[in-house]
Amino acid sequence: MHLPIVLRVSTEPPLVSFSVMKTSTTYPRIREAGKFAVNVLSHHQDTVSSQFARKGSDKWAGIHWSETQAGNPVIEETLMWLDCDIWAEHDAGDHLIILGKVNEMSPPGWHIHEPLLYFKGKYRYLRAEE
Fold first, then answer.
1. Model confidence over 89-109: pLDDT tens digits?
2. Residue 29 CB burial class (10 angstroms; 0-12, 13-18, ≥19)
3. Range of the domain at 28
4. Rounded to two decimals, what is the model's pTM?
């Protein structure tokens, strides 16, 4: 199990989406709060990604983070983050599709680091051509 992929859905209003298994033990807490943050990890944060993907562990152990204005956690050294409220939730078989309205975002750090990618069971690195 790895972290969900977040996709832009709409520009006006600004909406993003992700899907989560109905058996998730984390999502019910997000639903109850009604808000979440999306952290776009840097290429060197593969251990952070792996830690959050493990079941039954303290996902936040040893993770350095701060809060958005709305109180959502932002992991240090991410490329960027989005602070969202849950906009809608849709049934999709054994998953739920969650739409989030973006209320705040950091400036992107694409010029500083490359994004962390997970593809075909491995972490990959996207390198810009010189």
1. 999 999 999 999 999 999 876
2. exposed
3. 7-125
4. 0.83
